[in-house]
Amino acid sequence: MIFGRKSFPAAVEAFETAVRARDADAAERAFGRLTGAVGRARDAELHAAGPRLASFLGEVPPGPRATVAVLVGACVERGADPVACAPAVFAGARDAFERAADFCTSWKEAGRGELPSHEGEGLEEADFERIGFEPVTAWQSLPEFERACVAMLNSPAVRRTAPGRAGLRDAVARAAELSGEPFQCLVYALAVLDDEPFVAIDRATGAGFALRASGIGDNFQLHTLLADALIGGGHLPGTPPSPEAVAMCRDRPGQTPTTGSFNLVGADGEWVWNEGSPADVPVVDGVRLVVLDPPPYERSWSAGRFFPGMTGELVLERVLTAEETRPLLAQVAQPRR
Questions:
Q1: Helices (H), the chain
Q2: Residue 65's closest CA among 152, 163, 140, 171?
Q3: Is the pLDDT assigned to residue 3 strictly greater than 80?
Q4: What is the average per-residue pLDDT within 157-177?
Q5: Strand partners, 256
Q6: 219-266: per-residue pLDDT in tens?
Q7: Which of 59, 81, 139, 225 could make an S-S bridge to 100, C-beta 3.0–4.6 Å?
Q8: How confident is residue 336, by pLDDT bands cut at 50, 70 and 90?
């Protein structure tokens, strides 16, 4: 069937009407129209559809609910208001992760062995009766909900103001513990810091720097931006990352090779691994304190953003005085590795 220019708004309306009327057959037909028409929708249509779909997401049956959440995410990526859309997506994701955790417990209690894939490999028809339709469906829906939530969390306004993040974080942590899956993208997205004060201290010279970070997804990105601010800014010796690497860690698409400038260490003496996130940096006297040591060996990686839709910022606010740096450095342990 070929849909006209207004097919997407009509499909949204038909789907909402069927869902709110609890008409399963009509909802299934309208859902097919909705997913078929979204690819031809104009930006203005998506702007309006995102909050509208989010407004009744909790009423959508469990089967298609995660896919509708992904559609809401697609609307946000094309300009729909993320703050209006995020609470419903977070609530749906939290419910899915909580039910998925129950699924993991029931699966193990039933002696079913290794957990099935989210695509259904390893599932049997009897599992839907043995464990329940909604827990099984929730387990299958997790990758879609993870994708939808990350689309919301790309927005700094959502990260700063949208309710529901703490409950979602707890639900994801429980599902991760029971399943053994890290759900890394969502865990890192929920941990992203905004307007977060950092202090970096060069151990060899005692030089200290007050910085502020926002939207940085992992410590590869943090490391590159630190080297740009401190070496590229002329405050520490060394070879700064290329302008291309820095731009790609901020807002330019793509990735490019770069080489590490430091070994990042926490005040507790533990290495701050590049594979971790800035939230891993321990807090000292109310700020995250990272110590800069010489790299013990050469490390190279592809510089860029962990979340391609998220703008990363690291601003050097000022150079600290020796009087400010000395008591902080006194609290820093020697590296433990």
A1: 7-20, 24-37, 43-55, 62-77, 82-109, 125-130, 133-153, 156-161, 165-179, 184-191, 219-227, 243-250, 322-330
A2: 140
A3: no
A4: 97
A5: 303
A6: 999 999 999 999 999 999 999 999 999 999 999 999 999 999 999 999
A7: 139
A8: confident
